Amino acid sequence: MSFDLFISYARKDNQSNSITDFVEHLKAEYQAFAGRPLEVFFDKNDIHGMQDWRHRILQGLRESRLLLACLSPDYFDSEWCEWEFNEYLKSELGRAWTWNYSSEFSRPCSKPNRR
User: Fold this and answer.
1) In whole angstroms, what is the distance from residue 108 CA to residue 5 CA?
2) Neighbours of 19 (CB within 10 A)
3) Which of 18, 33, 85, 106 is the most buried (most CB within 10 A)?
4) Looking at 6-20, 25-39, 48-62, 90-104, which range is the least confident one?
5) Helix and strand element counts for the chain (H, E)
6) Is residue 104 part of a domain?
7) Which secondary-structure segment (H or E) carries 6?
8) Residue 10 and residue 75 in contact, taking contact as beta carbons nearer than 8 Å
9) Cα–Cα distances in angstroms (integers) from residue 38 to residues 1, 12, 97, in the given order
10) Degrees (nearest 5) of the Cα angle 82, 99, 54?
11) Which residues of 27-63 are buried (b: 16+ CB within 10 A; e: fewer)?
12) Which one is predicted more confidently, 96 or 48?
């Protein structure tokens, strides 16, 4: 499954469901505007076991078109949020390199004009 959006947030910031409420509002607005549901990766559940967490987050990051980071002091203090953000950047750099390689290097070379 692919996602339109990956929500990256500090769990402390969602204790009063403010992030959850924001995501639900965003989904409703998108549905009204685009006429289709917004596919969002939003992990609200407590994660048990580091390996399962990493696998689930990495899969969500790789399958998402865009990352929305809900920035706050707690977000910047979280090593997990930093890891998530960095993994997203790595994924995007990989996509950009693949795009550049396939579009730039697959064209036939031409000789420069010499006068």
Assistant:
1) 36
2) 19
3) 85
4) 90-104
5) 4, 3
6) no
7) strand 5-8
8) yes
9) 13, 25, 27
10) 30
11) beebeeeeeeebebbbbeeeeeeeeeeeeebbebbbe
12) 96
Give residue 46's pLDDT band: very low, low, confident or very high (50, 70, 90).
Answer: very low
Q: How many domains does the structure of the chain reveal?
A: 1
Q: Name the pTM for this structure.
A: 0.76
- Distance, in Å, from the CA atom of 109 to the CA atom of 65, rounded to the nearest integer, reads 32
Question: Which residue reads 């076991």 in tokens?
Answer: 49
Strand partners, 64: 3
Average pLDDT over residues 22-31: 96
Per the domain annotation, does 42 fall within a domain?
yes
Is the separation of the CB atoms in 61 and 87 below 8 Å?
yes
User: CB atoms < 10 A from the CB of 20, how many?
Assistant: 14
In a domain, 96, yes or no: no
Would 106 be classed as within a structural domain? no
Closest CA to 72 of 10, 2, 20: 10
Q: For residue 62, what are the domain limits?
A: 3-82
